[in-house]
Amino acid sequence: MKVKSERDFWSGVVFVATGVGFAIGASGYGMGPACESADPCAASLQARFAQLSMHPGPGFLPLGMAILLALLGVVVVFKSLTIESPGDDRLGAIAWRPLVVLVCTVAAFGPALEPLGLLLTVPAFVVLASFAGTGPSWQVVGMGVVLSAASWAVLVRGFGLATPLLPWFAR
Amino acid sequence: MELFDNLALGFAVAFTVPNLLFALLGCLIGTLIAVLPGIGPVAAVAMLLPATYALDATPALIMLAGICYGAQYGSTTTAILADVASGPAAVAMATDGRQMVRQGRAGAALAVAVLGVFAAGCVGTLAIAVLAAPLTEIAFRFGPAEYFSLLLLGLVGAASAAPGSRTKAIAMAVVGLLLAQVGADPLSGAMRYGFGFAQLEGGIGVVVVAMGIVVVAEVIARLGRPASSRELLPRPVERSGPTRDDMRQAWPAVVRGTSLGAIVGAVPGGGALLASLAAYSVERRLAGAGGRFGRGDVRGVAGPASAGSASAHTSFVPMLAFGIPVHAVMALLIGAMLIKGIEPGPQVMASDPQLFWGLIASMWIGNALLAVVELPLVGIRRRLLSVPHRALAPVVALIACVGVYSLRGSAFDVGMTALFALVGYAMHKLSCEPAPLLIGFILGPAMEGNLRQALLLSHGDWGIFVDRTLSAGLLVLSALIVVIASLPAARRRREDAFVED
C-alpha cells in the first residue's frame, strides 16, 4: 500500500498514539460511581454508560476524547493511504540545526538561571541561539548584554522575582 | 440612554494615563512588531501574555486588544510597501496596492488604506458597543447545555476554517482539549496526567503552550526555510495624497468592505484574511472586466483594508458577549481573562463594566492614535522590515524564555516550553494547524465544566443537548459548518487563501 500523503500518514499515527496514550492514562482515573456502591453494577455496556453519565468521574471525559482522537487518527491514516495528493505531500527536510539548537538552549535556560545569573545566562543564550541561524557576531554578544539588563529589569523590578544577576562565584 | 452612560464610563476608564499608554503600546507593538515576518498577531499576543500577570485586567486587555487591531494597520501598510506578503490581509491588498506604488501613487494608496482601516475600526467598535447588551441578554438564557453547544460551535467553526485537512484540524482541537485535562480535576480534585510533577497541579499554563507552539516553533520553522528575500518597494518619491477621484471611488468600497468584514469577523472561523479576500473578490466583480482593477485601482486597496479591520474588531463581539473565540488570537485574549480570574461570558459586562466599556472605548482611542501615527511610522517600518529574520530569532526566543520564566520563576515551565517547541515544530512538519489546538486548549476547561454540569442537571441523560431547542440548534449549526467546509468549492477557496509566502 503506497502512502499517498506522508504528512497525513504520520499525523494520523501520532493522533492514534496520543489517543491511546491518553486513554491508558484515563483508565487509571475513576470513571464514575464504583460498582461496589449501593446500586447494583449495571449489566450491559449501555446501562453502565448511563450509570456513569449521572456522575462522571475524572477519567470519563478524557477517555471519551482520547478514543475520539484515536478514531480520528485512524481516519486520517486511512485517507493518507487512499486519497491522492500532489507530490506525495512529503515531510520535507527537517531543520535539524535550528531545531536542536533552539530546543536545547530553551530547555537549558531555566536550570542555568539560578547558578549562572542573568548576566551570564542571557548573553550565552543569545549567542548559542544564534547558532540556529548564521552564528554569533559581536553585535549579537552586545545585544545579549543589553538584553540581560532588560531581563533583569523585567523579572526583578517588574515581576518581583528573586532572579540573581550575578553568577554564583561573584555573589 | 444606557449606551451613552456606559460609553461615558468607558471613556473615563480609557482616558486615564496608564490606560492610554498601554493602548498606545499595544497599538505600536501591533502595527510594527506583529507584522514582522515570523511574528504574527498570535505570536505577538503570546509574547505579551506574561504581562497580564503583572498588570490589572483592564490595562492588560487594552494592550492586548491594541495588538489585535494594530496589526491590521501594520499588515495593510506593509502589504503595500513590501514585496512579500507579511500579514493576513496582505495577500488581498498586495496586487493593487503595489501597483499604485509602482505608479508613483504610494501616498494615495497608503492614505486610502489607513483611512479605510480607521473608518472600519470606528464602525467595528461601534458595532461592539451596540450589539453587546442585546447579545448578553440572549446569553443569559443559556444553561450549561447551551453553553457547551455554543463552545463546541466555536471550536468546530475554528477547526473548519483552518487550512488543510479538516479531519486533522478537528483532531488538533481534540488534542488541545486533552492537554487542558492535565492537572487537578476541578470537580473531584483528582490529579490527571501529572506524572508526579507537582508543578502540573494547576495544569499546563496557556503561556507555556502558546510560547512553545506559536512562538519558538515558528522561529525554528522559519530558520529551516531558505531565506526569502524581502524586497522593499522603491521609496515613494511623491508626497501627494489621494485625489478627489480616488476618494470618490474608494469610499463605497470602504462601506462594502466594512459591512462584509463586520459579518465575517464575528463568525467562528472567520478572520481578517477571509474578510479581506472576500472583499477583494467583491470589488473585483463589481469593477468588471477592463478598467484598472488589478493594476492600481484604489478599490482594490480600500475594500480589503476596511474588511480586514472591521473583522478584527467584530471578532471581539462573540468573545465579549459569549466568551467564544472566533480564532486563535481571541482565544489567547480569553486566556488572558482567565489568567486574571475573569470568567469570559455575558456576566463580564455586568460584573466588570469598567473592563468591558473601558476596553471598547480604548479601541476607538487606539484607532485614532494609529490613524495619526501610521503614516509617519513608514520610515521606522522600512527599517524594521529590512532586519533579516535570522537576527531576530535569538531575541524572539529569549523573549519567550523570559516571558515564561516570569510566570512563576520556574525552570520547569521553561523546560515545558522547549517540549512544546518540539511539538510545535513536529506539527508544522506534519501540516497540523496550531490554531484549533490553542482554541481547544483554552476552551477545554469551560467545555468540560459545562458538559458535566449539564449531565448533572439531566441526571445523566445525554438527550439534554438535543432536547433543549437552543442547544440543538447550535449543534445543528456545528454540523452544518463541518459539512459546508468539506464541500470542494469551500476547500479550494481555503487552499488559495492560505498561500505561504
Main pleated-sheet profile of chain B = 2 strands, antiparallel
Write the element-wise H/E pattern of chain A from the N-terminal end onward: HHHHH
Number of strands of chain A: 0
Judged by helices, strands and strand pairing, the structural class of chain B is: mainly alpha
Cα gyration radius of chain B (Å): 22 Å
Regarding quaternary structure, what we see is heterodimer
> Strand order, biggest sheet of chain B?
1-2
Tertiary shape of chain A:
flat
First-residue to last-residue Cα separation of chain B: 49 Å
| DSSP strand count of chain B | 2
Overall 3D geometry of chain B?
A: globular
Task: Please tally the helical runs of chain B, counting DSSP H or I stretches of 4 or more residues.
Answer: 23
Largest protein interface, residues of each chain: A-B, 73 and 65 residues
Runs of chain B in which pLDDT lies below 50 for 5 or more consecutive residues are none
Fraction of helical residues of chain B: over 70%
Helix content of chain A: 55-70%
Low-confidence stretches of chain A: none
| CA(first)-CA(last) distance of chain A | 64 Å
